[in-house]
Structure formats: C-alpha cells, structure tokens
Known about the structure:
This protein is α+β, with helices and mostly antiparallel strands. It is 31% helix and 33% strand. A five-stranded mixed beta barrel has the order 3-4-7-10-8. Strand 8 and strand 9 form a beta hairpin. The protein is globular and about 75 Å long. The relative contact order is 0.19.
Amino acid sequence: MPLSFKQLLNYIIILSLLGFILAYWNKDNLPQTDVLLPDLYQQPVQTKTDEAPFSLSFGGNEVDIKPLAHYEMRALVTSLSDSNVLLTDHEDNNINVRDVCVIWGHNLTPELLSHLTTSNGLFSCQFDVASPLQYNKFFYITNAVNIHMITDRPEFRKIINEMRTGDQIYIKGLLVSYQLPQWGSFWRTSSVIDGTSVCKVIYLEDVKILARGNPGWNLLYQLSKWTFIISLILCLIIFIFGPVEQQIS
C-alpha cells in the first residue's frame, strides 16, 4: 500500500532524529592514530623575538600587544570554547576569537585517545582520563595546552570558528601579552614555558585546518539536523492548511 506524503514525512522525521542523535554522540570522538599526520608528533617550535610592542584597532578598542616569542605548532583539537557562549569575552567584536584545547606528541597514543575527554572552562582546559592509572601512565601535561587565539584578520577568524573537535591544525604566530583599555593595568599574558596549567596567547600569523575530524559523522549531523527541521516545518504546514484543503474539496 503506497504511503501518503504525511506518512512519508513521519518516517523521515523519525529516521532523521535517530541519525541526529547517533551523529551527535559520535561527531566529537577523537580520531585514532592511523589517521593522524606525522607532523603532529613533533614538538612545537618556540624561538626568541625582537619584535617591538605594537597596537591595533579592533571592535572599537585599541589593543596593546607585547610580543614574547615566535611560536609554531601542529596539534589535535580536543575541545573548543563556544565562541557565542555568554559570560566569556569571545564575542565577535573581541580580538580573542576562541579558546582551543590541543594535544600533540606523546599524548597521541591509542591508550589515551580512546579514554580522554576534554572540556573548556572560562579560559581553561580540563583534561580527564578514565582512570588515575591511565592518566599517570599515558598523559603528558607538557604535550597539552589551552590556546587563546587572537587576530584581527577576518580570514583567520573564519577558520577558527569553523574548527571542531578532532581537527588537526597548524598554528603560527607570536606568543604575546595583550591589554584592552577597560582592563586598566591588567594584561592577559601568555606562558612561554610548557607545564601544568599552561595557557598560550597567540597572535596569529597563520592558521590552517590540516585534516578534518570525523567528517562522516559531522556530515550526518548536519544532514539529519536540517532534514529533521525541514520535515517538521512541512508537517506544521500540513497541520495548519490540511483542514482548509478538505473543506474546499
């Protein structure tokens, strides 16, 4: 017996919802080592700089920047701050686009990647491993960092906002301290050493997404999400206008 259009929509809604839930559950899984680029096992390169302090205008603010060192790295994204979330200073008019938690080198092992979960706090990263034994044996705090990425270049801001968990990325720039006028004497500053609770503030000179994380799951996530939304809208239209059509006939 052929399906009516409304019945077909109901099946599509159910299938797209199931696809959405499945994709949402898997899209932020960290990749396994067989798909990681060899360069991610290299340590970041940090060198001295003699660049003088400079200022730039962005978002209606004059931003003062003090270079501390040159910095270049390739790493795996384990989590990101939501650039639109309230109670952070990552708005569109702020030079600090987004915070990104990354790992590299010794942390890229099957034992760790299968059990590591990461979340972003307010200007911080929380790295959690399934058990203290795995944490002590496999996790190297010197091969993990929270990055504050600052830039006034639209093309860089676009790339940063497109990043997602599982992406393999390349970053090059200056480790800096920076200050906004409303902060008074306070400077948000970058660490120039690797270690516990380390944060890097990087003024970007280049940023790239080298490889996407979970492309299949992310594609299913987007397709199922929009299929679900469009199908619901069509069902709503049928619900509203269906009785009218019956009265006319």
